[in-house]
Amino acid sequence: MCIRRDSGMTPPRLHEASPLGAAPNAPSAHLMNLPSAASAAPQPPVRLRFDWVNVSFLAFAHVCGVLAVLYLALVHFSWWTLGFALVWGVFCGLSITGGYHRLFAHGAYRASLPLRLFYLMFGAASVQNSALKWASDHRAHHAHTDSDRDPYDIRRGFFWAHIGWVMHKVPGGGVPLVDDLKQDPAVLFQHRYYLPLAFLFGALLPMAIGMCWGDPIGTLLVAGFLRLCVQWHATFCINSLTHMFGRQPYTTRVSARDSAWVALLTFGEGYHNFHHRFQADYRNGVRWFHYDPTKWWIWLMARTGLARGLRRVPADRIEQARRETTAAFALTQDSSR
Ligand SMILES: [Zn+2]
Ligand SMILES: [Zn+2]
Fold first, then answer.
1. Which of 23, 64, 159, 277 is 20 to 30 Å from 85 at the Cα level?
2. Beta bridge partners of 168
3. How far is the CA of 253 from the centre of ligand 1 (A)?
4. Cα–ligand 1 centroid distance for 227 (angstroms)
5. Alpha carbons 308 and 300: distance in angstroms, whole number
6. How far apart are CA 132 and CA 100, in angstroms?
7. 8-46 burial by CB neighbour count: b if 16+ within 10 A, else e?
8. What's the rounded Cα separation, in Å, for the pair 138 and 155?
């Protein structure tokens, strides 16, 4: 699917924050008694039109996802097909969380060419746009969270943040904020040939592999479309659920929240409050017991030499952020009495 949209936003000043997130020692909006961005009323979208290509493919994929369940239940159940779909789903999932998100969008670590190619291949199979466009949208989300320039602005409601933004065209063009990624020929190649690569790794290759155990149609439906739908909604939950439900231990300046439940669905991406405060840390679940398979994967890749330069926020800065947020919350409680 294209799932392409052009935001048409003017490039924000990405470096107004520290490389690891919020500006150090910056007082919170509550402490300064300023209105947070989240409290401003959203402006109505300008001339938004449906992106019928995306809408059509979303509908088609979901119908095929339902057919996949019926196929498994009523036509032909195969452990091989189911097991392959799970493995393919894990590869695709890690390519979005560890690749598109923590590597390409945030530069939380550096990856060797084989690992980048792995991410770009299975990232294309995840049909969430090219890494370049995905990172461009995501950097805009972090730079303009809870404002009209946030592509998945939660103030427009759950549906918009979850999937509505994918279904609409936004005026403008280009892929701003990602000049660094444009220096990587592998990223540019994937951006240029995104659609054929998505078709190849998302549908054709699973189908061809499924022929090995005589179930190409089942593999296409289950590892192709059912896996795709599950993966989409898991990713979309980060933009919707973790901006609505959960705890805010590290910052109340944005709507992002920590949700262990969403982390279970998303290879650890549910610790979104920590992530918004310290966006270039390779961990989202910062405590050792937090369920964050993506950080374990990145750590494993570093042990094998395929990744290096893992960025971690010092523990005292994390603790300071937690204390600041607790103090700011207590202040708002006092002033509301
Ligand atoms: Zn967010
Ligand atoms: Zn992020």
1. 159
2. 50
3. 12
4. 23
5. 10
6. 8
7. ebeebeeeebbebbbeeeeebbbeeeeebbbeeeeeebe
8. 17
Q: From the CA of 38, which ligand is nearest?
A: 1
196 CA from centroid of ligand 2 (Å): 27
Beta bridge partners of 271: 258
CB count within 10 Å of CB 118 equals 19
**Ligand 2 center to 14 CA (angstroms):** 13
Using the mean position of ligand 1's atoms as its centre, give its distance from the Cα of residue 175 in Å: 19
Q: Measured between alpha carbons, how far is 112 from 307 in angstroms, rounded to an integer?
A: 6
Predicted confidence (pLDDT) per residue in 119-156, tens digit: 999 999 999 999 999 999 999 999 999 999 999 999 99
Q: What is the Å distance from ligand 2's center to 138 Cα?
A: 6
Cα–Cα distance for residue pair 165/160, rounded to 1 Å: 5
Please count the residues of the chain.
337
Half-sphere exposure of 11 (CA within 13 A, CB side): 11
DSSP conformational letter for 167: G
Tokens of 115: 């690992």
Tens of pLDDT along 149-159?
999 999 999 99
Q: How far is the CA of 43 from the centre of ligand 2 (A)?
A: 24
Ligand that comes closest to the CA of residue 281: 2
Ligand 2 centroid to Cα of residue 93, in Å, is 15
What average pLDDT does this structure show over 234-261? 97
Tell me the pLDDT tens digit for each residue of 258-290.
999 999 999 999 999 999 999 999 999 999 999
Q: What is the reported pLDDT for 329? A: 81
Paired tokens of 261: 């439940």
Residue 213 neighbours by CB distance under 10 Å: 14
- Ligand closest to 141 (CA) is 1
